[in-house]
Design goal:
The complex is a heterotrimer. Chain A is mostly helical. Chain A contains 8 helices and no strands. In chain A, 45% of the residues are buried. The chains are: A mainly alpha, B mainly alpha, C mainly alpha.
């Protein structure tokens, strides 16, 4: 692979800027993801009877399930918009490296997911009177979101081109994303329950490995997914 | 830990082998049926093509 | 369509004979295992199907990469054949594992890394077929399928590793056969004969089924092409 040229970054940042500006104007994606996340948390509250004792063991699981669901919602929408407005075709016609398009989309998807997480975390802390703002947990959330979005962006680009695109993404994404989600749950609950660092190290390593693999693979194969 | 007599688990064994053979049988049958259906489709399509050529 | 080649006919017969011999070896030739009894005999087919199942998924991922490089539809047909046959065999593996677990571990299912990874892998390949079904263009279908088998092949080992982490704090409830729970019991020479014969027999059956599926794929492609031509 050749070294990325300045135009690579320019193209990538152009896509990110475009997505963020569009979202800043309409706010339809973020508001949908946010409301959805809060609803999921409310449902979990009653479905699992989240009293103090239960909460300790399931907080990490509830958080990651919420993020995963909200994440699919965002991924699906952000790719469907490209497809419907014909932006994707325009992007593909431009003499831009395909991986720049991938990175651009992945970065803006990641930004949306992080914004949602940044709002869900304090709300959850407030509702359940637990402090989720621990540097370790924040690191895990960042790593987990990167891996989830990295593979999710590729799969969303595929799923929006299928006939059953509304239901396809979670079916494709969840079985592939199980390692990153479970490693993230394991590491998060480790930090939340004050486990020994040696115990948290293994899931953290797995998160990093997953992130690296599933950034490298989409980077190599994204062009096969978008070409007409 | 070590039982005096070997437990009788032959029922599970029979169920296991029955399911193995049934599943493989169903798959082989599905291959056969799909193959036949496609053959029929092919014949119809080829006949159709002949007709359009004659016109 | 051309008639069935003679080599395939021979392979069909050989496969059936091997399956018969393997069944005989597993059910009558091999001695009864002392701790678990007769149910241990499903082990031979369990391992046989698991081996060809995994082999097929690896073959599919490789065929996918070769397809993306060469863009030759034959590799796509090969990939589909491998995934489909493997999905069937892997289903048998999981059911047999569950049947074995019931008397050995006193439960139909445990969230043990191997069982869980097998189930998730099976789900990945079911998703694979759903993905393919949703795409009209054969060439695009092949491309997406190739990328997805590759992702699946890479994610499965990671799933295994991550579930092993969970197991260390959630020990599996194991009955009285802890040696069996680890997947190990000492095999006698006769058991070993049945074991290796099952591996061999299922490999041949696997090749036979893939061959049939390839022929079906070629026919499918022909019909699809004709349909496109006549509708134009």
């Amino acid at each position: 692979m050749k070294a990325p040229s300045p135009s690579f970054f320019k193209a990538m940042m152009a896509i990110v800027r475009k997505d963020l500006a569009a979202e800043f104007r309409s706010r339809e994606l973020l508001s949908a993801m946010l409301v959805f996340s809060l609803l999921v948390i409310i449902i979990f509250n009653f479905a699992l009877e989240l009293d103090v004792k239960v909460r300790e063991s399931v907080t990490a699981g509830v958080l990651w399930t919420t993020f995963a669901f909200a994440g699919t919602l965002g991924l699906n929408r952000s790719m469907a918009v490209e497809k419907d407005r014909g932006c994707m075709d325009g992007l593909l016609l431009a003499p831009v490296d395909r991986s720049a398009i991938y990175f651009g989309k992945a970065i803006s998807n990641l930004a949306f997911m992080l914004v949602v997480e940044a709002i869900v975390l304090p709300v959850y802390s407030m509702l359940y009177n637990t402090n989720l703002f621990q540097p370790g947990l924040l690191l895990v959330i960042l790593l987990g979101s990167i891996g989830y979005i990295a593979v999710g962006t590729l799969l969303a680009a595929m799923s929006v081109q299928t006939r059953t695109r509304d239901v396809m993404l979670p079916i494709l994404l969840f079985p592939i994303a199980i390692p990153v989600l479970l490693a993230a749950v394991k590491a998060s609950s480790g930090f939340l329950n004050g486990a020994e660092f040696s115990e948290i190290l293994a899931p953290l390593n797995l998160l990093v490995v997953y992130d690296l693999i599933f950034i490298a693979i989409p980077l190599m194969f994204f062009e096969y997914v978008v070409e007409e | 830990m070590f039982l005096e007599t070997i437990p009788d688990t032959s029922g599970y064994m029979i169920a296991g082998y029955a399911i193995s053979f049934i599943t493989m049988g169903i798959y082989a049958a599905s291959l056969y049926i799909r193959h036949n259906n496609l053959k029929r489709d092919l014949e119809i399509l080829e006949a159709l093509e002949e007709k359009t050529k004659k016109k | 369509m051309q008639t069935k080649p003679t080599a395939l006919k021979i392979l069909d017969v050989v496969s059936l004979i091997l399956l018969g011999i393997s069944t005989y070896l597993a059910l009558f030739f091999a001695p009864t295992e002392a701790v678990m009894g007769d149910v241990q005999r499903v082990f031979y087919f369990h391992i046989g199907t698991a081996w060809v199942g995994l082999l097929g998924f690896v073959i599919a991922a490789v065929a996918g990469i070769v397809y993306l490089i060469t863009k030759d539809m034959r590799w796509d047909r090969f990939e589909v054949a491998a995934v489909e046959v493997s999905t069937v065999f892997f289903f048998i593996t999981i059911v047999l594992g569950s049947i074995w677990a019931r008397p050995a571990w006193n439960t139909w299912w445990t969230w043990d890394p191997r069982l869980t990874t097998a189930a998730i892998t099976e789900l990945i390949y079911i998703a694979y077929f759903m993905l393919r079904q949703g795409i009209e263009d054969p060439e695009k279908r092949a491309r997406f399928g190739a990328v997805y088998t590759l992702l699946g092949g890479l994610s499965a080992p990671l799933t295994f590793m991550v579930i092993r982490l969970f197991r260390t704090i959630h020990p599996v409830v194991i009955g009285n056969a802890s040696a069996a729970a680890e997947g190990g019991f000492s095999m006698t020479p006769d058991m070993r004969t049945a074991f290796f014969f099952a591996l061999f027999a299922f490999t041949v059956i696997f090749v036979d089924m893939i061959w049939h599926r390839l022929r079906l794929g070629a026919l499918e492609e022909k019909v699809e092409q004709l349909k496109l031509n006549t509708s134009l």
